[in-house]
Design a protein that fits this description.
2 domains, alpha+beta, 41% helix, globular, Jelly Rolls, Arc Repressor Mutant, subunit A, six-stranded antiparallel sheet
Length: 286
């Protein structure tokens, strides 16, 4: 188990930090940090957890995150097999709110940019032409130095603050309530569910993992995640099912059991509840 998930990614020589991530899998730790972050997935698939939101990700996934919002791109289980031959690739950019001075965003000309920063505290996912532009700029900024990197970031942020194409990720009013001292506990829970969602998950086992009674754990999880533990598990399972439905290689019954549901009827009922369509309708729509 790695250290608690409050990350320190401070650079002593750069105002804007851009990194190219190439590993067998993305960082499996659910974490947060005091920086703004632009991130795009070039290669890899899995589950994306941001705040109280759960989605699958694939190449092209591009987001802008504000400070201290917990996040995780958990690669699919195959990426953790040493002989899988799979790899992940992403580009991430970090900067702090005061990277141009503490009062910069309070100036009248910065109103739209300030609103973008506020919106990013829920996380923003980009699609379409705006997503493609962000990805292109992040790739270009890998090779920028000094003032040019700051200028290019400001131009990109200005575009993001004036054009449509972004969708909020976490629910309205989401606030990170995790303390650094307790994040390792939730990391254990998240890791366990992401590794075992296709199997039966007993509440008692997970509560024991967190060092709590079942009742106390349920209250704790709901207060921290803005959802019940059962909803969290089901959203992970439904997200996995959505991915398999779009691959068009399996029957709906096979997908139901592979995603951890004990019956086809239970799968259909939960899929309709979380997605708003039946599995067959979802597959047909896409």
């Amino acid at each position: 188990m790695k250290a608690p998930i409050h990350k320190n990614i401070e650079s002593q020589v750069r105002t804007v930090t851009v990194q190219e991530l190439k590993e067998s899998h993305f960082d499996p730790n659910w974490h947060f940090h005091p920086h703004y972050q632009l991130f795009t997935v070039m290669e890899g698939t899995g589950k994306r957890l941001i705040g109280d939101s759960i989605h699958t990700f694939e190449p092209g996934d591009t987001v802008f995150l504000g400070p201290d919002i917990p996040h995780l791109w958990r690669s699919d289980s195959d990426y953790f097999n040493a002989d899988s031959g799979l790899s992940t690739h992403g580009i991430v950019l970090y900067f702090q709110e005061d990277f141009l001075g503490k009062d910069f965003l309070d100036r009248p000309e910065m109103l739209a940019l300030k609103q973008l920063m506020i919106d990013s505290k829920r996380g923003i996912a980009y699609k379409g032409a705006l997503r493609d532009h962000v990805r292109s700029e992040l790739m270009g900024m890998l090779h920028e130095e000094g003032f040019q990197s700051v200028l290019r970031l400001m131009t990109l942020l200005n575009k993001l603050s004036h054009e449509e194409g972004g969708t909020p990720i976490a629910s309205y009013g989401y606030v990170n309530t995790y303390k650094i001292s307790e994040t390792e506990r939730m990391q254990k829970v998240h890791s366990y569910v992401l590794q075992h969602f296709a199997q039966e998950i007993r509440l008692g086992d997970v509560a024991s993992l967190a060092g709590m009674s079942e009742a106390a754990f349920c209250r704790y999880f709901k207060a921290r995640s803005n959802k019940t533990f059962i909803d969290f598990v089901n959203e992970i399972r439904i997200g996995h099912a959505c991915k398999l439905l779009l691959e068009d290689q399996w029957t709906i019954a096979q997908i139901a059991y592979d995603s951890g549901f004990d019956s086809l009827s239970n799968f259909n009922r939960n899929f309709k509840r979380y997605i708003g369509h039946t599995p067959r309708e979802y597959k047909g729509n896409y």
